[in-house]
Specification:
Helix content is about 25%, strand content about 30%. With about 325 residues, it is of the alpha+beta class. The chain folds into 3 domains: about 5-45 and about 220-329, Outer membrane lipoprotein wza domain like (Outer membrane lipoprotein wza fold like, Roll), CATH 3.10.560; about 50-60 and about 140-215, Roll (Outer membrane lipoprotein wza fold like), CATH 3.10.560.10; about 70-135, wza like fold. α1 crosses α10 and α2 packs across α10 (about 315-329). One of its GO terms (molecular function) is porin activity.
Length: about 325
Amino acid sequence: MSLTRMLRLIQTAALTLTTCVALCLPAAAQYTGTVPTSAPGLNVRLPITTDPAVLYPPQRELTLLPGDLLKISVYGVAPEYTDTERVDLDGSIRMNLGGVIHVAGMSVKEAEVAMSERFESAEIFHSAQVSIELTEAPQHFATVVGEVKGTVPILGPKRLLEVMAANGGIPATASTVLRIDRLGQAEPIIVDIGNDPARTVQANVPIFTGDVITVGRVGQYYVLGAVMRPGVGQLSGSIPVTAVEAVSAAGGLTFPAKGDQATLIRNVGGQRTVINLQLRQIQDGKLADVVLQSDDILLVPSSGLKKFLATQSSGTVVALIVAMATLLR
């Protein structure tokens, strides 16, 4: 779409502003004002985690927690003994034989030893071989949020791809770059399970109870105004796109472009926020670039467009820019 046609569309939209606002700014997506380019989250480009010690920590033994259901079997005695007990909120189980034993925080092997010693000290069984099977574990799970949602029980060793497969896999709308937040670990783990087989193997990291896996969304962004090729750009699942890169992909700025007065409109929590960008200073390395998100709209005004927009209110400007992006879909 040519810049001339775009300007005509703007003028038409200006004459029918009420309709435009009704269509383009529903109640859940109203204009909320401007934020600086230093605002949290705008310049986030998390690096892929490469430290093997972080990616592949030692396998953790499962520890018993309140709510766990245990099937207890005792062998080497006559008659053989079986019992099923649930771990109480105080972390204890109350066996038919052996009484109360605190097991929360123990591994299965440690609980087996504790029960065997209890049977021995109480002279119930001698040299008993205790086996515990964890049949229910409501607190042992990993959580997947974002474009994929669900929980996966973690009752033994599990890998990332297995957890994702249990939730239906990665849809086409999802990013291949996944974030894993782990209890007790300050920094998130960032992995890319993209199309490179070697990278996918490396990204298939162990997943533990309590892990939260965030799956981002891959979408589109829009570059409008004084660029060579205004239009729609695709976000990659594994490679972030910045505002400067988006302008470059659109052929760069045209001669009358006001690069230091660009506008980025972003939907944050259902509300549209305006971010003022100084593209030329970003290109010169004086300001941080902004990483684009799905449905971002980047407008680079020309001198004529700038004069027209200067006569409009901020909410009106947002409505017009969103209308322009909608026409490109």
